[in-house]
Amino acid sequence: MRAPIGDFDNAVPAPDALDRLTAPVAAAVRDWPGPVPAGQLLYVDTDPAKADTAVFVETYGKDLLGTSANCVVVAAKRGGERALAACLVGSSARVDVNGAARRGLGARKVSFAPHETAVWETGMEYGGITPIGLPADWPLLVDAEVAALPWVLIGSGSRRGKLIVPGKALASLPGAEVVEGLGQRV
Where does the signal peptide begin and end (predicted)? Predict the structure, then answer.
């Protein structure tokens, strides 16, 4: 099957690619409760050496610059306590940690979590972290522009492979809140 975005010749329904997903992502796809059938979540195989945004877009399609999103793990501090959360913004934007993310998480301060923490806590590879399969108790802030897209390319839990999902499916993930202006164009 051809993917609805990008230049991918072989997209497969994610439930048929569970063996290619990290454990937390495979479990989330297997138990998918979203507003669209799990079969509409698509897996595409990609070269992990071409995972960085600029090279990825050059290789797999320039339309992906406007239809792909990055999931970033952040640490929010409030009342002396630190909690982890995730933010999903377009790949050509950066997370507004000091504004929209801080307000959305009700935190005094928000900063990017260290790579090691993000990997350990999610069970995913750095560079492939995805909002599907995050710890259930984490808040997930989704940029409104991303949630409004018909199709969005996101990580699959590893640097090899990506998921293509309807934007509305992201807004219904556990702990998700759609936030206006979460992503700032760079």
Answer: none
| Angstrom distances, CA of residue 159 to CA of 8, 22, 45, 46, 108 | 16, 10, 10, 8, 32
Which helix H or strand E contains 171, and what residues bound it?
helix 167-171
- Is-contact 43 161, C-beta < 8 A? yes
Domain ranges across the chain? 11-185
Phi-psi region of 181 (alpha: psi -120 to 50; beta: other; left: phi over 0): left
Alpha helices in 19-153 (DSSP H): 23-30, 53-60, 102-105, 115-122, 144-147
Contact assessment for residue 66 and residue 177, using Cβ atoms and an 8 Å cutoff: no
| Beta-sheet pairing, 162-165 with 81-90 | unpaired
CB of 116 within 8 A of CB of 73? Answer: no
Beta strands at 176-179 and 140-143: parallel, antiparallel or unpaired: parallel
Residue type at 36 in one-letter notation:
V
Tens-digit pLDDT profile for the chain (186 aa)? Answer: 889 999 998 899 999 999 999 999 999 999 998 789 999 999 999 998 887 778 888 999 999 989 999 999 999 998 888 999 999 999 889 999 989 999 999 999 999 999 999 999 999 999 899 999 999 999 999 999 999 999 999 999 999 999 999 999 999 999 999 999 999 887
Q: What is the DSSP letter of 52?
A: S
